[in-house]
Amino acid sequence: MNARTNKIREIAKQLLDKHKVDVVIGFKKGTIPLKNVPYFARNSKEADLLVWDGNCVGNLANYLSRMGDKRSAVIAQGCVSRNVVGLIQEKQVNSDNIYIIGMPCTGMLDSRKIIAAVPGEITEVTENDLYVIAKGRGFEVTMNRNDVLSRNCDRCTVRNPVLFDELAAEKVNEQEDPVRYERIKAVEAMSPEGRAAFVDELLSPCIRCYACRDACPLCYCPECFVDKSSPQWCGKSQDSSDVLSYHLIRAFHTAGRCTECGACEDACPMGIKVRLISGKVEKEIRESFDGFEAWKNLKTQPPLTVFKRDDPQPFVKE
Amino acid sequence: MEYMRLNKKNMAVFIEELGKICEVWGPVKDGGQVKFAPVSNVKDMDLDGFKNSTMSPKEIFFPQSEIMLSFQRSGEGANIYRDEQAQPSKKAIFGIRPCDARAFRILDTIFKNDQFTDNYWFSKRDATTLVGLGCSEPCSTCFCTSVNSHPFDEKGLDVLTSDLGEHYLFKALTKKGRDLLAGISVLREPSDANIEAHMALRKKAEDVMTVQFGTDKVKDKTVLELFNEDCWSGISEPCLNCSTCSYVCPTCHCFDIQDEVSKEGGERVRNWESCMSWIFTVHATGHNPRPTKKERVRQRFMHKFKYIPMKRNGEIGCVGCGRCVALCPVNIDIREVVKQMNS
Question: Whole-structure pTM over 0.90, yes or no?
């Protein structure tokens, strides 16, 4: 068992035994390779099932806004901690009820990359700081861990939690992202027709399961616009304009709030790179508002939620 | 002849000759997905290492969005209706897995009762011959043997194919299947050894796929006992309440009907819907009898493993294809759920 798993269990047991929290939200080992399951430990026996490795994909902050009055501890990497800050700022959770077990992060694995790199069905995956080893019937493939990280983790510049009560590991070095928005810039460079065709192609596998929305900690609305029936804002069919409307409107709702955690992309059963759309919105916000990044601390509010008398954009006053 | 043999060298001719009888569909790669689609040439098919399609093939007979009829405004507000059901093409699908064919059989009994027949399903279904492919190497997510089936199950198929390496062995199971194979010139009578090899392959696949859970106690418990089990809170807790499991499932069949209207007229469309969705059960009053994900998650598993078997002579409403196991974003594994229901 790795040191991080050990430390999480130790912290979780203390918190639960001393009744500091009612539940510790983490992950337990999944039933198939490359998948862990979000897990809610409520006593020290259950805490022994918590694990930490490269398969802890998804954003645990997503569950916090649904915990009611329960005092919850959550294991939070950089991105998750930022989303907790967001939930506190947006008053979706009471910070007194939240205990953040900070987890300096070395990135999660991209299961699709690993599956694509091996010749058959994977039955077992092991990893260490440097390598990932995938085994199956008649093969064993060793990969550099950095080569098979999720794309958002690969480029992540906030690996250490921005807010925490306790750390479960030593802080890690932060990375630079010299080619930020590389993919988005490539799309921007296309002609309008080319962009339309690109987005059509991008979204053509969408089955409208809304896993991208449901995996997102920003999407806590009790009733999503896409589910409204009276009036109905968005058509329900597979018509490409309705599919596009859903994705565009959802992306707009993340403006200035998205932490690029990648939970949307990881959740998509069809492997759609949905972050190309929300990432474009994130880029616009960053460029329009002095390099703004969402939820880096408890004080700075997202630019679209505040009014300033000296707002440089004159349309606000007109 | 019940059994026929095809040398794989003649696969191109086989597909070509089938193509003269009807449209031929097979597994093809489309971006990151595998799906069943029309093929004109054996090279279009992705048979090397083929496991199964990403989405269930139910979408061939029951598309995610299907226009049922259209209407147009004319003169003084009167509408002219037009039936939009296309005359489906006659087709043969090569490579359908036995689990998915069994799912079609379950859906047949749902899309038809003593009063109604759903023509949108049956017009396409009846025009199709299923040339299934037995699973010599089931996936680790598969569990057909736990739901009263096996990797070479013949129920629901018109022809069962065994991959013998150099040859394919075809077993015609219905008149449709026999008629289809009768039109092909490159089929030969198999040797006894071929048939033995097929039986050995089948035995080996069944042995590999051991029964992973029982359903006896689910059958014995009453609906209310199961309904009120404590397990549902824990099972549903990690659920995101997305519709992935329902949409990739070969037996989920719920739909919503919408009129898409403009000034001039419109279309009536039926779209897949999912019991995981909040809006699925919300009433016009605002009351929702399945208000939280616990009730919604419970519904999905109860439907597959209790309600369908109760209504349909014990037939389980899950065929063990494992798509939901592989694709659930939070790894809610139906096998583990049934183990808890059956405890």
Answer: yes
